[in-house]
Amino acid sequence: MKKRQSFCLLIAMLLVFMTGTGVWAEDDTRGLGDGLFGAILEGMFSQANSSAKTNMRNVTVDPIPDQTYTGKAITPTVKVSFWGSRLKRGTDYTLTFSNNRSVGTAKVVIKGKGDFTGSKTVSFKIVKKNGSSGNSSSGSSSKKKNESSSTSKKFNVKLSTTVYTYNGRFRKPSVTVTAGGKKITAKYYTVKYFDNRSVGDATVKVTGKGDYKGYSGEASFRIDLKKASLASVKATGDSQIKVTWRKDTQADGYQIEYSTRKSFGSGTKNKMVRNGNKTTEDLYWLVNGKKYYVRVRSYKKVGSRNRYSEWSTVRNATVKE
After folding, report:
1. Residues 238 and 312 grouped into a single domain
2. 193 and 269 together in one domain
3. With bands split at pLDDT 50, 70 and 90, how would you rate the model's confidence at 128?
4. Cα 143–144–147 angle (5° rounding)?
5. Which has the closest alpha carbon to 255: 117, 56, 48, 112?
6. Hey, which of 7, 46, 62, 95 would disulfide with 79, CB 3.0 to 4.6 Å?
């Protein structure tokens, strides 16, 4: 009995090693049999399948403007998006507000729902009504002096576009600059763009001049991979399909998703290709006679995480019997 247990343990360790070194892909569990080995592999890859949901840490939340104190609980509109698509409250996330009745800093917890998991916390300010003793009588010059003497000397910069698709050219969204709630004309600032050609995060820096010397501000925008292009999906042998796609010069690799369901619901599997130069991959251990739906997307590592393109169009093939 001890020898048998030791043998099973050795096989389990071998399976873990083979999976980690790429001998088997994460999804190559079909055909390996039931029992102990099947249970081992099922446990190993259950976590990979659950990772299909998107963590709320990766969504984008538009800045919430300062809110005016009313004495009542304040629940401003929260705009949440993922890769440029606006998410829907109640379907993709829920909101929980706190400290949102008094003057100060309020918080809102955005909790994932449906295809989203985890949570993200953002804050906004509640301020007293503006009782500025404004000498509103004459003049723009006095306003400029008041603004120029501001201790913050901060420009608020808003971009005409915050998400682009890579096309090999420099991207330069137009800017709207304000200070103290007033729109500033272009003669009072200069604009510079950084990292605005390749896939990733780009930055716009605005520097004041003339009456607004000493002011500065910045904003960021994103350049995404272009949509992946799937060339062909063919059944090439027993329990096997070959997937071919077009190379993306900006990609570090690709992700293949395949399923017997056209909607890519439960039972969907993924396979990572960690080579941006590769344009073909075989899928093994498929069920003979079954039709499989396949799509692919590219990815590029930006900072500590991967940025993905849109999914390609879906193609299908029936495994040969």
Report:
1. yes
2. no
3. confident
4. 85
5. 48
6. 62
